[in-house]
Amino acid sequence: MLDSLPAAVRGVIASLLLALNTLLLCSFLFFVAIFKVLPFAITQRFTRWLMSHTHEAWISNNKAWMNLVCRTRWHLSGLEGLDYQHSYLITSNHQSWVDIMVLQYVLNRRIQPLKFFLKQELIWVPVIGLAWWTLGFPFMKRYSKAYLEKHPEKKGKDLETTRKTCAKFRNSPVGIFNFVEGTRFTEGKHAQQKSPFKYLLKPKAGGIAFVLDAMGEQLESIVNVTIHYPGGRPGYWDLLCGNVNDVVVHFQELKIPPQFIGKNYDQDGEYRLQFQGWINQLWLDKDALLGQMHREYPAKV
């Protein structure tokens, strides 16, 4: 343990370990990806298996340095029913970039490594963008309403791209992740939105609806995650410095209502209203749960 060292020193050490872990495993990943293009089913299955386990090894190494710099107290509930061999759609409230590391830490080897829907522009991020592409993370190009008004021929192309990407996951279990709020919670965003929730931003149902349209029949369930930091919302530097002392995480596994599978969110207005109502109710329940977490795990000075 490095908890006797100054926080800044721990942060530098953790940053170096994270960078080394990323460079080494990404280098190995890129080498393995060379064989991915071979037109043999057995070769492609083996490379997918090896790349998935490389992804898990990267997360496991990150868990190691997180444990090294801080004795975080984990308060976890609802994990009992998850199965490594099943496919899940995971969603969570979003407070900090630390959320992603928390989810990877807790879910590593409990379910398949999480794959995030990413903006197409992120493929150009040095090293990690290529790693995301190699691992098969779904990249999406979403068009604005104004753009679609000028280019109506592009309508539905984003969903078509999502379907093609998700089709790659049909023969193997996968963990698809989506932040329903679309962005991190801040007081400024909360006020700007005039959010009806105390601890949450307004949910955006379209992302989840797209996944259910593309691969709903393959998914075992939706895993609804609620994260609370008793010490306040941490930044990524806080994590690196070992200043995240308590994390509360609740997992709720939800069966997907059959009436929401295979529907077109953009073109079916009645379905869209029903689905938005369902997501809003989930968010009302999540907001109440966060209130309970704040009472049970109050802020620590």
Taken from the alpha-carbon principal axes, the silhouette is globular
Number of domains: 1
Topology as a string of helices (H) and strands (E): HHEEHEEHEHHEHHEHEH
How many angstroms separate the termini?
23 Å
* Strand elements, count: 8
- What would you say the CATH architecture is? 3-Layer(aba) Sandwich
Low-confidence stretches: none
Mean pLDDT equals 87
Q: Counting H and I runs of at least 4 residues, what is the number of helices?
A: 10
Q: Describe the strand arrangement of the main beta sheet, using strand numbers.
A: 1-8-7-2-6-3
Structural class: alpha/beta
The biggest sheet, with number of strands, parallel, antiparallel or mixed sense and barrel status, is:
6 strands, mixed
Strand content: 5-15%
Q: Could you please say which CATH topology applies here?
A: Glycerol-3-phosphate (1)-acyltransferase
Query: What's the CATH first level?
Result: Alpha Beta
Helical content (DSSP H or I, runs of 4+) = 40-55%
Radius of gyration: 20 Å
How would you describe this structure to a colleague?
The protein has ten helices and eight strands. It is an alpha/beta fold. The chain has one domain: 3-Layer(aba) Sandwich (Glycerol-3-phosphate (1)-acyltransferase), CATH 3.40.1130. The protein has a six-stranded mixed sheet, sandwiched between helices. α4 (128-134) links the parallel β4 and β5 (139-140). α1 (7-33) packs across α4 and α6 crosses α8. The longest helix has 29 residues, at 41-69. The chain is globular, with a radius of gyration of 20 Å. The mean pLDDT is 87.
